[in-house]
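look at this:
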Amino acid sequence: MLYRGMDRAALDAAYNNTAAVGQAKRDAYVSDWTKRSEPIRTSARAKLDLRYGPGARHRLDVFPAGAPAAPTLVFIHGGYWQMNDKEPYAFLGEGLLPAGFNLVVIEYTLAPAVRLDQIVAEVRSSVAWVIEHAKEIGGDPSRVFVSGNSAGGHLTAMAITDARLAGGVAISGLYDLEPIRLNYLNEKLGLDVAEAERNSPIRHFPSTSAPLVVTVGLGELPELIRQSEEYAAAWTKRGLPGRYFPVPVHDHFSILEELARPEGVLLGALQELARR
């Protein structure tokens, strides 16, 4: 057995989110997000493909809420660090913009072109760029928040160490990368023991932090739920501010609707952080 009583086949299945919901359903989600993102991306206020670094994928899209000194959410897309782009995620603005939040969607270099160490460094750099340029995009640099789903949830936990952030919402993340090192995902990531350890948030907690909400859909794979539960418990055990906030029913993809809908519970959790 490789990990927690699972052989390779069981471990592969335990982290295959597309297989869990079905390829057709996953594709339908992304198609819907892409369609809904288009009017937001083509709006007059949108600022697309701003550069935060020299790399080909060191780009971000800014969607201002239109209010001065607005809070800003930096969103990090998922895809197990090896697929997806920023463009389909502008739909999150359906909830965030009317609620008065600027939305910034970032992109980063994907594996296997770079190692996870570099991906983490790029995301931290992009978050720093947003904080440092917040006033230019109509934001308040003291009210920048970070969020992301799946691999983006992991990267949220890695980025929250920036002391200038006001808070974060980590969605369906991976916080212990040892099972990732041992399953099919490592074919492109190429993690060794040391790299998996130093990029596992559950092994490296900050001494102080802004509040972090750790959330997961209760319709997701059991390993994803376990990782979120254990990370949130370890976070709060260290006296760090935040909470575990599981969301009933949702799968690994549908949970994003709770950030995109004006009445969504994850948008509500973000608004609660902003009120602080």
